[in-house]
Structure formats: structure tokens, C-alpha cells
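User: Could you check the structure of this?
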Amino acid sequence: MAEDKVVQIGKYKVKVIRDLCIGAASCVAVSPDTFQLDSENKAIIKETSKDAEDNIMLAAQSCPTKAIVIVDNETGEQVWPV
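Assistant: Sure, the predicted C-alpha cells are below.
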């Protein structure tokens, strides 16, 4: 099982908590250039993203289990989930 990897995207640090992910793929539907499902049907973050930061936030907010954590790089504050 892969560990929870943190990826810096623009002003955010983004992480998928694999133990919470149920593979609903709502994040993939909203932000397909940032998220994809792996062989275990768990969301992973792509190394490069062409999605706007607003789309990444919407993808996190669409997750039914709140498995996507977003932290503001400048403040260190977790902005999702709140």
C-alpha cells in the first residue's frame, strides 16, 4: 500500500488520505489533470497539474469521505476540510 504523498500545486499542498478514499472518483471527474485512480481504485495526485487551483479545491470538496486535504503554503493553514 502506498503512503499518503503530499504534492505542492500552486499555492497549495495537496494530500490524499488513502485509508479514507473509497474510489468514488469525484475528484477525477472535477480535476482530471490533477487526480487519477490507481490499481487499487484509490485517488492519487499526478506529479504535474494543469488544473486551476479553484478546480483542485472543488475536487477536494466533492470527495464524499473528505479524503483530500489541502493546506495553504503561505500560512500553513489547512483550508480543506475545515
